[in-house]
Write a structure and sequence with these properties.
Blueprint lengths: L2 H8 L4 H15 L3 H10 L10 E5 L5 H9 L4 E6 L2 H12 L5 E5 L15 E6 L8 H14 E9 L8 H18 L3
Parallel strand pairs: 1-2, 1-4, 2-3, 4-5
């Protein structure tokens, strides 16, 4: 670890302020980001009060993981990323919010950690991360995700909402219109 990174991780930063800045930046970078999160979390229609087990790949500081806990308050989330600063941000923010997110520094391309989670998760989610893996690593990751899912489990990836599935596009447009109707009320 570089000295500057160690100093940053050990500093008394206001991690909550940095998390809010991250959220603002991401909201500008990814159109309808929270709507995408909501679609990913609602589509599987898992029981809201159940102890759902969720894996968040490429979690960053946990934006999607925190949103998942709003949808499923009794869930347990394993949030993995390789960026230690984003993970530190997520851990600091989680200290005041929840003990239901476990942040782990993991390279999802590394095959060794996956076996510990075979058949564990009801839902695997990712947003704006998996496209960085490249085709070969992405194919391997999808195979590993399949092994990590419980029977009947779901993988929801929100890199972009552009699907050949008409039902996906219809549901996304309906959700977006409903949000817009409520957003523009006087």
């Amino acid at each position: 670890m570089e000295v500057s990174t160690m100093m940053l991780l050990d500093s008394d930063l206001n991690w909550h302020t940095w998390f809010e800045r991250w959220q603002t930046q991401q909201d500008c970078y990814v159109p309808q980001r929270l709507y995408r999160f909501d679609l990913m979390l609602q589509w599987p229609n898992l029981p809201r009060e159940a102890e759902v087990h969720i894996l968040n790949l490429g979690c960053g500081p946990g934006s999607l993981a925190f949103r998942a806990l709003e949808r499923y308050p009794n869930a347990h989330v394993v949030a993995v990323d390789f960026d230690q600063i984003l993970l530190a941000m997520g851990r600091h923010v989680a200290q005041d919010r929840t003990d239901r997110i476990q942040f782990l520094r993991i390279d999802i391309r590394d095959a060794t950690w996956w076996a510990a989670y075979d058949g564990t998760f009801d839902l695997v989610v990712s947003a704006t991360a998996l496209h960085w893996l490249g085709a070969e690593n992405l194919a391997r990751t999808y195979r590993r995700v399949y092994q990590a899912l419980k029977p009947g489990g779901w993988l929801m990836n929100s890199d972009h909402i552009a699907s050949n599935n008409p039902e996906t596009q219809t549901r996304y447009r309906e959700m977006l219109r409903a949000k817009q109707r409520t957003a523009f009320r006087e």
